[in-house]
Amino acid sequence: MSAPSHAPLRAFVQLSYGYGATSWHTRWEKGAIPGINEPYAYGYYRAAGPDVVIEQSEDRVENPFSRLVRYGVRFLIGFDFVHAWRNRVGIMSSDVVWTHTEAQAMAVLLLYRLIPRARHPPLIAQSVWLMDRWDQETWWRRWIMRLLLSRADLLTFLSPENMARARAIFPGQRMTWVEFGIRADEMTPHAPMAHTPGDPIRVLSLGNDRHRDWTTLITATSRLPDDVPCHVTIATANRIDAPPHVTRVTPTNNDTLFALYDQADLVVVPLTRNLHASGITVIEEATLRGLPVIATDTGGLRHYFDEQCVFYVPVGDVQALAQAIVTLACDPDRCADMVERARARIRTRLNSHAYALRHVALSRELLSQGVPASDNPRENTTPAARDMRITIGIATSGRPEILRETVAQLRRQTHPAQEILICAPTAQDMAGLDASAGVTLLQGPRGLAHQRNVLLDHARDADIIVFFDDDFLADPDYLARCADAFAADPEIVVATGRVLADGAKGPGLTVAEGRAMLEDPRVNDTSSLPAVQPAWNGYGCNMAYRLATIRETGLRFDERLPLYAWYEDIDFSRQLGQRGRIVRVNGAKGIHLGSKSGRTPGRRLGYSQVVNPLYLFRKGTFPLDHALRSIGRNIAMNIVRSLWPEPYIDRRGRVVGNWLALRDAMRGHVAPEKMLTL
User: Fold this and answer.
1) Which of 6, 95, 406, 619 is most buried (most C-beta within 10 Å)?
2) Among 366, 364, 357, which Cα is nearest to 48's?
């Protein structure tokens, strides 16, 4: 085979201490790792080839003191950072990093934060148990985990159920399900069950996971009919109270373990309710050894094997489990058919080779997104993007002159909008604009959230709705680049553009200044930036949403956030982000003029700066640490600047509003609408 013409992909696999390449391989050669295992843990090495180089973390030999230090740090922060630090050279010099559980992912992400100026390879962070135990973690550990894992480039999960739970915790983050598979190089034949009356059914059950439901298994096998005796072997390191028909063993090598499989008639995987596909490794091992499987229907196992491959029973259902054992014991043909169907799944997709190659595909996808987009939008546009129907929604108040200029700029889009909807409290707010082809003028209650809901109500058959502020001047290719992103990735549900200049952070910009910036290649240049990158929320002055997802969820802007509706963009986009990705499209760019006309008075805005984040925290759309940082930053800025206030900002009014809000919050009164009475 000829050598590749390009540099190979260099992937570094950071695994737990004890799973290092050298130490694992040594134990594997001795047969000291029970189970159908790989020469190198989890089979990531199978992705290696002419165009892929795989390097795996190593375990440093420890003395008692260094081991104590590593354990101490792990105890304090909840994951093994010292082990990641020891492997930092391999991590930082790779093209992409893979981790197997959330513990290694957090260690790598902390390493990135402690080396801020270095290049950080993209991280594929797999989560296994975190979602199951999330609610049991202390608040400060949840804060650390959310802070770190929200920086991962891609979160992967072994179960769709696990991923669905994560959507609520990490809304908008890129995530995907990766099917886990084990080494499937050999499939051992197994003699079919042939029982004579009085022979016991030989049931094998294995596992150390805390979600194993030994109680249901033992109870079910204790209640079989008298003419159907049963002997159960439970292979676990956990202690259980075993009645006479149950034998507990702890296999220490493969010879012992495989002998248990060879002597069994069927395997039972009894489980309590969980999210992480507990038992999938045992099901795959049993299938490879030729045994039919009964499993509890939980954790997303059905996404791996359907009911034609595995006999499923409800969680905790003793009678159903007992009946399943008797049914399979009396039907060897069904058992053989189940095994063959399950093996077909393993041959085609549920194996370690496919698992490793999936990581390669995801890595290449991540790295390709880091490539800057072409300056010519037509080079990236696909037929699907060209067919994207886009509606623009503008909520406005008190700026008719600027609004007319904004609409004029939008008429220059290379991907024309299907419709421009404009909503204002009064007709005077839209003076000088006429309802014409492609422009619809609407009236609604005063307040950004109210007006944007009116716009949603009138967005008919569009694919995307883009909300622009009435003082946002969009680059002519804004909608084209937005369409490219949504068409290329159906997981994207929220997109925000690149703000080239933001007048809201200063005295504001004139229309002439904004247009001059758009025409200046020194300002309007995002060619060095990736076409698409993760974002935490949509920025209210320019944000796009997939309308189908909005309709599916029935989501609305929160009308308890009055007038300027401070942080309504965060609230809405983080909620929708639970259904997909939130991204920044760097080619969708523009200038936010930050006009000071039509703004909320200082005292009212200051009140919202404190109360709205606290309200959204209670609502569950804004983490507490983010809320406290936002409140502290705004209060500090208002106090300092009130000594020498800017002529265009009522700093002293904002300080008064801040303190009124703090007073109400300390009394337990967190009501955003109260700002209307100030």
Assistant:
1) 406
2) 357
**Burial grade of 471 (CB within 10 A; 0-12, 13-18, 19 or more):** buried
Backbone φ and ψ for 473, nearest 5 degrees, come out as -95, 110
Query: What are the structure tokens assigned to 574, written together?
Result: 């983080």
CA atoms of 655 and 636, how far apart (whole Å)? 9
User: CA dihedral defined by 306, 308, 311, 314, rounded to 10 degrees?
Assistant: 50
| Structure token digits, residue 166 | 């994560």
For 257-268, give the DSSP string: HHHHHHH-SEEE
Which residues is 12 bridged to in the sheet? 55, 97
Q: Give the integer Cα–Cα distance in Å for 640 and 654.
A: 12
Q: Tell me what pLDDT residue 192 has.
A: 64
The pLDDT assigned to 553 comes to 93
**Closest by alpha carbon to 471, among 520, 406, 395?**
406
CB-based contact 132:104 (threshold 8 Å): no
| Number of other residues whose CB lies within 10 A of the CB of residue 5 | 6
How far apart, in whole angstroms, are the C-alpha atoms of residue 503 and residue 510?
9
- Please provide the DSSP assignment of 17-77 as one string: TT--HHHHHHHHHTT-S-SS--SSGGGGGGG-BTTEEEEE--PPP--HHHHHHHHHHHHHH
* Residue partners of 624: CB distance under 8 A and separation at least 6: 143, 617
Q: For 609, phi and psi rounded to 5 degrees? A: -60, -25
User: Whole-prediction pTM value?
Assistant: 0.81
Listed as ranges, residues in the chain with pLDDT below 50 are: 1-5
Tokens, residue 23: 């130490």
Query: Would you list the DSSP string of 652-675?
Result: HHHHHHHHHHHHHHHTT---GGGG
Q: Which residues pair with 473 in a beta bridge?
A: 591
Residue 373 pLDDT: 52
